[in-house]
Amino acid sequence: MRSILHSLVLAPIVLAAVALTPNTAKAAAVVTVPFNFIVDGKVCPAGQYTVDRDPIKNAIYMRSEKAPVAFHWFMTPGDDNRQPNNVTLHFNQNDQSFSLHTVEFGRMTTPRIDHKSKRSAHDLERTVQGQGQ
């Protein structure tokens, strides 16, 4: 009888703890960048990059499995017309070098990453897209 009462008291506490545990599932995507590029003064080689989004912290993380580079930024609301799992990297091109301009993950976007004061007539923009899981 005592074990039944004990179970009846503990069951709601366990259920409440499970209900209050935040859903920390992260969305992730793999994006292939076909050229070297620069982020915050660091040269990132061409290759595959994993982009993870943490919706609770409103942050995005980008890393390469084959290069010792990793970055994170906070996200702000972006285009409401985008699909929730689409990932887009926007690059600025100046001559033969590329710099990461912004990252969009679903309807969220980063602020300007390259901190370029103004674009010249020779600058081009390249876009690389991926699909989240």
Proportion of strand residues: over 45%
Name the average pLDDT: 75
**What structural class do you assign from the helix and strand content?**
mainly beta
The string of secondary-structure elements, in order, is HEEEEEEEEEEE
Number of domains: 1
Number of strands: 11
Radius of gyration of CA atoms, rounded to a whole number: 21 Å
Strand order of the largest sheet: 7-10-9-8-11
What is the makeup of the main sheet?
5 strands, antiparallel
Shape: globular
Helical amount? 10-25%
User: Gap between N and C termini, in Å?
Assistant: 49 Å
Number of helices: 1
Unreliable runs: 3-24, 119-123
Give me some keywords for this one.
mainly beta; 133 residues; 11 strands
3D structure, described in words:
This protein is mainly β. The chain has one domain. It has one helix and eleven strands, in the order H-E-E-E-E-E-E-E-E-E-E-E. The strands form three sheets. It has a five-stranded antiparallel beta sheet with strand order 7-10-9-8-11, with no helix packed on it. A four-stranded antiparallel beta sheet has the order 1-4-5-6, with no helix packed on it. Strand 4 and strand 5 form a beta hairpin. It is globular. The chain starts with a helix and ends with a strand. The N terminus is likely disordered.
